[in-house]
């Protein structure tokens, strides 16, 4: 197999420091201690205070019996305590396992059991689901995290008011927690700090188990070391050229997602930025934060950019403080890029990556050479190749489509407990198979042609058809099902369920959405139902999802 990169990075890779992820926080506290590290709905925490809270939280985890290498599950929305938990677990050499806090008990049970997590730090609203899942896991301790503890004092007081608006706000932020489940904020407040001489993890130690379906089926955990994630933050810093201690990063992406985790939890701390944390993406909340603390850098997905521009226009809130935005997880439409740059006077560029690359592997330059709609150029220190879809040892001719391979310091170590799947994805000489078909244009830009697999990307989230199909097959009245994605404007793709009904049964979209809504993440619930007499199959009986997709598109036309 040849090892010549198809196209080179325009930016050199600086030396990657031999240090754990937590070193960035210690450095920021030492050099920018009085700078606001986190702004959560107006409640601010300096870097000195954040480092102190992380030290106490690390002491809590040691007190709970967490040892180096143990897995600590975090199932939280974006909040200050999420940062604290993340860095505390890493500081003592534990492995962070991020989870979507809105997952069902079954989804959480699979991931918690698979990782072997022994301690879970859980949003109060997710505690019931984790308690249901606990018997199927190795969990010893569940600790409840109350988002309200991160609010400004006035906002916490307002939640206690005996009025409908306050009750509704409290219900959205909190959930029922049994009396024997300890509260994280109280444990941290009363804890003794971890001694400064407590052993640090090494750069080669595992830092994260980040769940992904990759390009197929059941979610599996990508193993990322401290060095993998540190490398990606160093690559990102070289790409943006941000000056430490000056940026204001808006944390609107979910921290449990690889994109939000690296750009917000890791990169923002490496450049000692102020991270404006939003518990969820709500244009009104973002604009309120923009009035309070104007942002300079926004990692986002395209629908967020569009909605923010529309909302800012309506509310007459300027976005001109944003000089940089990076768009990922789905294609960046040229019109979205045009609207954002017209509203801000800054630049928005598209990046490409996957959980297995920590996650960024390619990006568009932050200058006039950017190409909306293209994946971009290799990140610093990253090699790419385009190979035959049927023989990965053969490079394709320039400009021809083929599978994208990536190699670099950010490429993961493999899948947790899945050596066979690791061998199929991570080749012996370090090249990662992405499962995406691309071409490289004459100017070196990589352009996405198609996905080899049939994963659906909706609103930046990955939906795996087989998981949705598994749930629908158990629904009364459905004999067979195929789930596909079809174009859906700014959201990228819409989840469509094509079903074959059992004789004498009738099923409507409302029933399908209700059934799936109790078993799947909200973004995976089908938006449309199509009833077919039968499903097209290959000679070996496999449902041909691409043919189903064509049928759905034809019906739409």
UniProtKB/TrEMBL annotation:
Chain ranges of the AMP-binding enzyme C-terminal domain: 468-542
Protein origin, superkingdom: Bacteria
A Pfam family of this chain: AMP-binding
Molecular function (Gene Ontology), one example: ligase activity, forming carbon-sulfur bonds
Residue ranges of coiled coil: none
Keyword Ligase: yes
Domain AMP-dependent synthetase/ligase: 25-416
Keyword set, alphabetical order: Ligase
Keyword hit for Cell membrane: no
Identification of the protein by name: Long-chain-fatty-acid--CoA ligase
Species classification: Bacteria, Bacillati, Actinomycetota, Actinomycetes, Micrococcales
């Amino acid at each position: 197999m040849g090892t010549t990169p198809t196209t080179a990075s325009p930016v050199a890779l600086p030396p990657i420091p031999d240090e754990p992820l937590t070193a960035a926080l210690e450095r920021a506290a030492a050099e920018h201690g009085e700078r606001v590290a986190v702004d959560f709905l107006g409640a601010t925490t300096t870097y000195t205070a954040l480092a102190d809270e992380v030290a106490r939280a690390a002491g809590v985890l040691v007190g709970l019996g967490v040892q180096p290498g143990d897995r600590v599950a975090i199932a939280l929305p974006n909040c200050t305590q999420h940062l604290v938990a993340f860095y505390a677990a890493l500081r003592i050499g534990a492995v962070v396992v991020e989870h979507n806090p809105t997952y069902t008990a079954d989804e959480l049970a699979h991931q918690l059991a698979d990782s072997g997590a022994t301690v879970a730090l859980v949003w109060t609203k997710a505690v019931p689901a984790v308690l249901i899942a606990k018997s199927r896991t190795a969990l010893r301790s569940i600790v409840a995290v109350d988002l309200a503890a991160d609010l400004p004092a006035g906002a916490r007081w307002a939640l206690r008011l005996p009025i409908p608006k306050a009750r509704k706000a409290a219900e959205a932020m909190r959930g029922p927690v049994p009396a024997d489940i300890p509260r994280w904020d109280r444990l941290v407040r009363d804890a003794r700090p971890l001694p400064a001489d407590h052993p640090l993890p090494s750069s080669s130690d595992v830092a994260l188990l980040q769940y992904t379906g990759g390009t197929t089926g059941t979610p599996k955990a990508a193993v990322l070391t401290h060095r993998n994630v540190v490398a990606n933050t160093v690559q990102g810093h070289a790409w943006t050229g941000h000056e430490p201690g000056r940026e204001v990063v808006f944390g609107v992406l979910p921290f449990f997602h690889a994109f939000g985790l690296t750009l917000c939890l890791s990169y923002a701390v490496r450049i000692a930025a102020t991270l404006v944390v939003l518990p969820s993406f709500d244009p009104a909340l973002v604009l309120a934060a923009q009035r309070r603390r104007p942002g300079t850098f926004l990692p986002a997905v395209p629908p967020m950019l569009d909605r923010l521009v529309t909302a800012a226009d309506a509310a007459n809130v300027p976005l001109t403080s944003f000089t940089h935005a990076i768009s990922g997880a789905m294609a960046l439409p040229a019109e979205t890029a045009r609207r954002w740059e017209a509203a801000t006077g800054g630049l928005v560029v598209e990046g490409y990556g996957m959980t297995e690359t920590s996650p960024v592997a390619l990006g568009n330059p932050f200058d006039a050479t950017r190409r909306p709609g293209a994946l971009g150029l290799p990140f610093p220190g990253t090699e790419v190749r385009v190979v035959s879809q049927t023989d990965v040892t053969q490079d394709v001719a320039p400009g021809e489509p083929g599978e994208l391979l990536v190699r670099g310091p950010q490429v993961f170590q493999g899948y947790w407990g899945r050596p066979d799947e690791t061998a199929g994805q991570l080749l012996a000489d370090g090249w990662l198979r992405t499962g995406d078909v691309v071409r490289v244009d004459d100017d070196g830009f990589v352009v996405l042609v198609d996905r080899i697999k049939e994963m659906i990307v909706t609103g930046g989230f990955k939906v795996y058809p087989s998981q949705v199909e598994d749930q629908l097959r158990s629904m009364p009245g459905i004999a067979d099902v195929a789930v596909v994605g079809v174009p859906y404007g700014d959201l990228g793709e819409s989840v469509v369920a094509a079903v074959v009904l059992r004789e004498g049964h009738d099923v409507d979209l409302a029933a399908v959405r209700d059934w799936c809504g109790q078993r799947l993440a909200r973004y995976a619930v089908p938006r449309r139902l199509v009833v077919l007499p039968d499903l097209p199959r290959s000679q070996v009986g496999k449902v041909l999802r691409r043919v189903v997709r064509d049928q759905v598109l034809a019906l739409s036309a």
